[in-house]
Design brief:
This protein is an all-alpha fold. It has a single domain, classed as Up-down Bundle (Four Helix Bundle (Hemerythrin (Met), subunit A)). It is built from 4 helices and no strands. Helix 1 runs antiparallel to helix 2. The longest helix is centred in the middle third of the chain and has 36 residues. The protein is elongated. Bound molecules: zinc ion. Zinc ion (ZN) binds next to helix 4.
């Protein structure tokens, strides 16, 4: 059985960490928005950084959305349930991915059976 209080605490910590990651990436992107160097090699490096930062930003926002969704589900008492089949998500899976919204079987079939 998943301990709801532990799960909430872990999700809140993760949410804070992700929010920090988003704001760091955005601060970096603002910095990157300055005019590119005249040197083509420098430009390539700067463009690379921008892509990396943008990916971090997108990934962190997506994770943040999942974490907030998991917190909503905690509030409404649906937290340990798989959103697809309604069975309890395996505790080991929740330990690894506190924001998981599907059981291992549903997550695996979503990846393969599209
Ligand atoms: Zn399921």
């Amino acid at each position: 059985m998943v301990d709801i209080h532990v799960a909430r605490r872990r999700l809140e910590l993760r949410r804070d960490e992700l929010a920090r990651r988003v704001s760091r990436a955005e601060a970096g992107l603002r910095h990157e928005a300055q005019p590119l160097s005249a040197d083509p090699e420098e430009q390539a490096v700067e463009r690379g950084n921008e892509d990396v930062l943008r990916n971090i930003d997108i990934d962190a926002r997506e994770s943040l959305r999942r974490v907030n969704h998991a917190l909503d589900r905690l509030d409404s008492g649906r937290y340990p349930e798989c959103e697809r089949c309604g069975r309890s998500i395996e505790p080991a899976r929740h330990d690894a991915i506190p924001e998981a919204d599907r059981c291992a079987a549903c997550a695996a079939s979503a990846e393969t059976g599209r």
